[in-house]
Structure formats: structure tokens, C-alpha cells
Amino acid sequence: MKIAVAIKQVPLRDHPLRVHSAGTWIEEGNLSFEINEPDAYALEEALQLREKHGGEVIAISLGPARVSQALREALAKGADRGIHIHGDPATLDTLQAAHLLANALKPEAPDLILTGLQSDDFGYGQTGVVLAELMGLPHSTIIMQVEIEPGKVRVKRELEDGWFQHIEMPLPAVLTIQSGLNKLRYATLMGIKKAKTREIKSVHASELGALPPASLTIDKIYAPEKGKQGQILDGDAKAAAAKLVEKLRFEARVL
Amino acid sequence: MSVLAIVEQRMSGEVLAAAQQFGSPVSAYSIDLPYTADAYTAAAEELIRKVNPALVVFGHTYQTRDYAPRVAARFGTVLISDVIAAKPPVFTRQMFQGKFNADVRLAGGGPHFVSIQAGAWRAAAAPAAVEKFAPSSATSRQVAEPPFRESARAVDLGAADIIVSVGRGIKEKENLPVVESLAQALGAELAASRPICDAGWLPMDRQVGSSGQTVSPKLYIAVGISGAIQHLVGMKGAKTVVAINKDPDAPIFELANYGIVGDLFEVVPALVEEIKKGKP
């Protein structure tokens, strides 16, 4: 069984971010990056499915040169090979990004394509769904469990308020994976060594067919307005804690 | 700009209100079929071709997330998802987990597609009438089984007066006693944001947020929770919100009545001590 996993590299969580001078993206200069969290779970699920059913795992990522680091990490964790589409996802909308992924994956004809349910940066939450449409495959989203059966896949899909639903569909299919459905592994030293011998194929976005026209443009990105009603209690921990207890007792009257 | 609202039960009033703000005339439909992604994608496509609107509006529900991007792609465009405000043709949505807003402008020909965030619009006082749409066919590769809940919830956070809720800032499972002692001092229920339950540090039935429980206690103390929208929708009904976080830009402070910017490992023990002081 051939499983492709689409991963995105995003700024490290909790890294302070600044809007760049053009105001339409962030300053990337001093940032560190990591694999988008739900994509890391998608990769883990692919590795576990391969361990159960055999086959190969291909990690694919769209992004600038730094993305090779995310692909190396995927290889170190156990992916068999990588595909790096050189392009700038910050300037692409989801249809354009999915178009590049679809055209890179079509010749591979994977049995299953996994990706995270959304990215920590744009957070559109659509790339997997649009990829399925462009490849003509059935899909399901926000997946908490994947069971492969002959010729088909049975998944547990998350709904709101603690509800779930089982869905079955024929393979090949595209699934978007929810964080937390498995336990992430760490790359071992052996894995890191092996990864060095594994192939990362480079493709430039311009080799993957004419992009569909942009469906949206970003006017600007900005910090949201600060809320008005909140009071920040300052001082050292002890002083702030004392103020808070007083406020909760005598102002909010909730203690 | 003519607007088509495609509504489901969840968020229907809000979607109709947003549709009325975005343009006119507004037509509103619900799709009269059991849900699968394929069936709804085909039905929405047929409906849109029939109504021929300039803009299609959805609620940003789990169902919309499952099929609406596919419908938009079928029309050669993208869904502007999880919109929090709008002055068409510009729509505002959050990025980077709520750290930034982005003003996004529609480009190209229509129809355009937008989904609105839960709670961002107040349900319409005089909503448009919703018609049922029965598509001409309903083939689907997905076969759906009835929704179910995992075992009954052991904890009903909805009934709690005071909730102490913990997020990624706690760093390790071994640190949980720090917040447990605060919950104990307040006689509060302990809750958590999703990553804590995903990691198995607390059981899933203590999760607050869109996929967990929705709570409205008198007092909600968010410790080390940055405040991703998926968490905020579960607790914004709380009467008084306290946020303790080391990042002054964390979105949770937007919602907090009282905030302390600092190291939770210093602030929480100090808070426990203060609370105990006042007690006989």
C-alpha cells in the first residue's frame, strides 16, 4: 500500500511573530519552523498503517528551501522518500497549493493520501479536501481513527460536542487527520542516519502545470484590537495573585 | 450582490444574519438529504447553478469544513473560511491561531464562498425563510453510519460553578499538581484545552472547546492556555474569565476580565496561598 502524507512547515508554536513591512505576511528572518502539528499526526498514522499493512510512505511538502528540513525529519521518523515542491505557500491560495500537490502526486497514484486537518498559519483547513476534488478521490475530514480493509477504508470522524461517526469509502481516498489520534514517535539516531541515504525529489512549482488564477488576495495582516474590558494585574507573582484574589472577592464577587 | 445561504440546523440563525449583511437578495436553503461529503458536494453544486448567486455563505461547522471547500474548488475558487467580520468584498479571518487577523479580498469572478465563525454574528431577529432543496441525485462514495458518543461522560463540566482549566503552558504531565492544587483550593472542577487531553494527561471528558464540552461557569481560570478559537468557543459563556499566561499577546487575554502575564509556575502557587489565607 502506497501512502502519501502532505506536510506543511509552520513557525514554531509560541514563537513571537511580527508582520513584515509589506503587511501581508510575517517576518520569517529569525523564525524557527516545525512540522504543522496535525500533519505530524498524519505522518505518524501513515507510518503505523505501513507497519500494519506493508508498503511505502511518501512525505510531500510545498515550500522554500527550509522545507527540506521538515522532509528530513519525516524521513528520520521512517518515511521512505520525500518530494519537495519548491514554491512559496505564503503567496498561494489553497486551490493553487492543492493544484501543485495534486499534480506532483498524480504520477505516484497513492492508495491513501493523509494530511493534517488544518495548518497553524493560514488555518483555512481545506488543502486536503481540495486535493481530493482535484484528484477525483473520495475524502473525509477530522479523522480520529483509520482502519484499512480490502479495497476500502473505515474511519472515525469527529463531530461537534463529543460526537463521532464512522464512515466507509473506497480506496484510493484522502483523509485529513485530527491531532491526538495516535502517539507521535521521535526520530531515533538510527533513523536520522538512514534518512541521509533516502531520496528527496525536488520539483519546481513551475514544472507542475499552469496555476489556477488566484481566488483571493490578502489586503493586510494585523494584530487584533486589544479587548477593552480586561484588566492586567501587574507586579511580581505574589502581588499579582493578591490583587487577583481581592478583585475576584470584592469586584467580580465570584469567590 | 446576491447571496445564497446554505444552512444546517447548527448556526442557521447566524448564517442568515450574515447573509443579510453581505448583500441582497438573500435566498436560503437547507439540503434535504442525510449527510455525506459526496452527496452534499453534488447537491450544493446543483443548488448553486440553479440560484446563481454572487456569494454563497455557510456556517463554519464541522460539516461545512468537510464538504464546502470541495464545492468551491468545483467552481474554480476557494472558500474563505472561518470569517469573523466583513465589509464585502473584504472579509476578515484569523490566522496563526488567532494571533493575527487577515483582511482577505475576493478576486476573480463569482460565485464566491465564505463560511462564518460560530458566535461572530448574532442570529437574525427576522430570518429569511429557509427552503428545502432536494437534489436530482444523491450518489456517494462515502457510506456514513449514525453518529455516536463514546461512553457517557463521567464529568459534567457544564454544571460547575468554578473551573480551573489548563493548557500547553503546563509543559509536562508531572506538573499537573500545580493546577490541581488551585482547583482544590477553589473547590473547582479541573478542565483542559485539547492538547492536554490529546496527550492523555487528562481524560477526554475534561476537554473544553468545540470538540469537547461547552461551559458557562461563574469563574473560569485559564492557566497556560493561549486561547485558540476552538477553545474559546467552549468557554466564552463564562461570567468571569481569568487568564494566566506568559505571552502577553495570547488571544485568551482578549476574553479575560482579569489577566496576569507571568510564569504560571510562580503565579499559581502564589494564588493558592492567597486563596487559603482568606479561609478560616
Q: Can you give a write-up of this model?
A:
The complex is a heterodimer of chains A (255) and B (280). A nine-stranded mixed β-sheet of chain A has the order 9-8-7-10-6-1-4-5-11, with helices on both faces. Chain A has a two-stranded antiparallel sheet with strand order 2-3. In chain A, β7 (139-149) and β8 form a beta hairpin. Chain A has six helices and 13 strands. The model of chain A has no long low-confidence stretch (mean pLDDT 94). By secondary structure, chain A is of the alpha/beta class. With 280 residues, chain B is of the alpha/beta class. Helix content of chain B is 29%, strand content 26%. Chain B has eight helices and 15 strands. In chain B, α6 links the parallel β13 and β14. In chain B, α2 packs across α3 and α4 (176-186) runs parallel beside α8. Chain B is elongated and about 70 Å long. At the A-B interface, α3, α4, β7, β9 and β12 of A face α2, α3, β4, β5 and β6 of B.
